[in-house]
Amino acid sequence: MRDRSAHVCPLQDGTVYSARMGHRPFSCSPLEEYEPIVGQMAIDRLRRVASDLEGLSLLELNSSAKGGGVAEMLFSSIPLLDGLGLQIEWKTVSGSRQYFEATKNLHNLLQGKRGAFTPEMEDVYVHSIEQCAVQRCSDGHDVVLVHDPQPFGLGHYLKSDGQSWLWRCHIDMDEETFQRNPRLWDFMARWSGDYDGAIFSAAHYVVSRWPMPKFIIPPFIDPLSEKNRELTDDEVRAVLEKYGIDRQIPIVAQVGRFDPWKGLDRTIESFRLARKSTRCQLVIAGGLADDDPEGERILNRILDSTSADEDIHVLNLPLDDRLTNWREVNALQRAASVIMQPSTREGFGLVITEGLWKGKPVIGADVGAIPLQIRNGVTGFFYGGVGNTAKRLESLLANPAFGRKIGERGREFVRQHFLLPDRVADYLAGIRMAHRGALASASCDDCIVSFHPWFKLSKRGRG
Description:
By secondary structure, this protein is α/β, with parallel strands linked by helices. The chain has helices at 35-38, 40-52, 69-83, 97-110, 119-133, 154-158, 175-180, 182-192, 233-242, 264-275, 294-306, 322-335, 350-357, 386-398, 400-417, 420-435, and strands at 15-18, 57-62, 87-92, 143-147, 164-168, 197-200, 214-216, 251-255, 281-286, 312-316, 338-341, 362-364, 381-382, 448-450. The two termini are 40 Å apart.
């Protein structure tokens, strides 16, 4: 069964999906359809963990239902949890442009950008959070799961007795950043004391100084969503024709937000150098998310720098029609010979996961949690500077059979580690431990529970 709900807009109070209100504007595939992909043991484990939490009221809070990996995961996990017997609800926070400018600055600072979260930014943030808190959006829920920094402060105003609040960090953050920026630490510590646990994508993101249990759970993709399902040749061809892309010319593609951390300049420079000896074209495709006012500036800069280059296609894919957007991204990734993501910082990089799942050779940077997905030369390749990466592009374009071999390994690695049923089971197990289990006590403030093989990086890569 495929989701047919293209246009999903939050209600006036920010509600995107609510089982208790009977507001279910989108769906996901039935659980049994995942069994041929992940195996019966994974499905049984998910059902078993969910049965322990049947009837639990869970609220998920984030900043936008349009664009970005968090929303994409929620579009699949929310209806899945509903079907498993949880009283699930998803709401988004609202705010002015000034608020989202402030939270984007906060996001960048947490990822290591030099600078300060100024008193003016802090005032905007606090005022907006207080306005959101007036709606009392968490009333009646047993567990509240807050995604990323934008709604982080709400726990201070809304947490009530008996509730468990967990923070899910999706960004490339580490304690070195807090050591360099004590004011940033003070700001985050102001709100962290209201949480009963934190979830990180990888071990090196864990903030050990926070007095709460920590969980390590990677993100996931939904292999049956419109963005990742198998497409027919006609579906792929229709998207390429829509955007004037000649399929006979090998495609190098980078898909994702227009963001300063995504390494778009690296991709453009590497492509231009490789093109001198290999016929190819570059597709850069992304969208402008509601909670990222910086994206428009980055898009305009990329358009200005590539407008005279007929081999570079820069696509601003509309986000209003979610399913069309996902189908077009799916088609562009499947049409590509090589997928690029040479980020300078990266919380995880679900576009890499998507590319690997589609059996494509992916070139990503050795930063953040990308090394959890790319094992250099095995499941993909690391960016090695413009010159070396151009040579890698030339090699992959000249030897498609080798690229397919790498892609097959990448797909199997994703199947084993980064698909919806396994990781949602991890989330539920973590919630059970924090809300009802042994970690629901002050004695476990230093506990770290990893639901993923602990891959210790030899150093913190910076690409």
